[in-house]
Amino acid sequence: MSSTNRRQFLKAASLAGVASASLPYWFSPESLASPFRSPNERPVLGCIGTGDRWNAVGPNAMKFSDCAAVCDADVAHVEAGKAKVLELQSKPGVARSVDMYEDYRRVLDRTDIDVVTIVTPDHWHAKIAIEAMKAGKDVYCEKPLTLTIDEGKQIRKVLEETGRVFQVGTQQRSEMDLRFLHAVALIREGRIGELKTVTVAIGGAPSSGPIDLAEIPKGLNWDLWLGQAPMTDYRFKKTDSRYGNSRCHYEFRWWYEYSGGKMTDWGAHHVDIAAWAFNLENTGPVKVEPVMAKHPVPFENGMPTDPSQYNTATEFHVTATFANDAVLHIRDRADDLGFDNGLMLEGTEGRIFVNRGKLTGAAVDGMKEKPLQEETLKALYKGKQPGDHMKNFFECIVDRAQPISDVHSHHRAMTVCHLANIAIRLNKTLNWDPDKEQIVGDPQAALWQAREQRKGYEIQV
Predict the structure, then answer these.
(1) 3-173 CATH, one of 3.40.50.720, 3.40.190.10, 3.40.50.970, 1.20.140.160
(2) Residue 418: in which H helix or E strand, if any?
(3) DSSP H or E segment with residue 406
(4) What is residue 245's three-state secondary structure?
(5) Largest distance between two CA atoms of the chain
(6) What digits encode the pLDDT tens for the residues 223-258?
(7) How far is CA 430 from CA 280, 298, 385, 416, 440, in A?
(8) DSSP state of 146
(9) How many other CB atoms are found less than 10 A from the CB of residue 60?
């Protein structure tokens, strides 16, 4: 099937039908449940970012699509990515062609590529996602989708203009034995009365101590890896951990220049579920207050003053209050409530606790006698069968609906996380207008809704 015909199919085809009985060698058994009616209808995939997390995302995407290109700023990553693709899409003596790129724009320029996965450091997500949508690609992007509030507005604007399908990698909405979906469904059915308070514990970032200046590893394009972020020296210190301490790769999470610490790393998961439970996915808080925060380095006017070590918060407690008086507590730990990771959802008639390993509470026990209504679960999951986050994305590529973890709701959840980080960095309470999506009454704090972008790497909307 030509690229043009495949794209026409992806816009118009129905979910009816089953996969062809004559499957090509790169089909996995899981693909039998694919929304595509024959192998020739499968989209062509480009993978942008092939580091640690891609080893889960990429193979999952290849259950429903065929990868033609991998891309990364680190040659070691891109070579490993190609090897993984060939392993999954090959049999002895036969190999599907896979091209390697350093510059993601080479992937976006390919007219044969329909879909991209974006599994880069957080500070690159928005720019690549926007350019991918403008290039006519559907997008699966890892969380957190953004580094700033304004980036979320930009992505939303381009999504509306282009009509692309966009899934964010917040898999808690789909997987983990549907524990989170069931918790939200219990609340929708009023099993704990009116939900008034949610406390999420998401862990604190590690501290590193001073990290030595180091030679940039061979094969790593450090300038490209930094992208919009300020130019700075490469640092690395060997430790007992797999990645050591550094400014790069997995450890980027603990630098405000590239990420938001646990506030966005795990907040993207648990705050998202809290907003879903509150049924406040299309709005936001009116006030965000820092109760407590500890950082591993000194700060001045919200900026870390020591460039040699991790700088995101190791401990924190922030409250977000909504217009209906619902309150969300975002904490590193909640030992006083008996947990260090998960969500405590408290209503007027009971409470539920949920994390990736358990779902507990009297309302949960009550499901044995009174199961959840199928209509409730179906409505929460936008009419589709829950249980596989990646499959949901590709089903939506077929019918052009927005997936379960859509840009709009994720942007609103991330706005809460970004406001929380601004509040603890500036050590001040923020007033927020959720309709105008603007910090009010504090022009200096409002400047933190965006970030300065290094010349040559600006986002163009």
Answers:
(1) 3.40.50.720
(2) helix 407-426
(3) none
(4) strand
(5) 67
(6) 999 999 999 999 999 999 888 999 999 999 999 999
(7) 19, 21, 39, 11, 8
(8) -
(9) 20
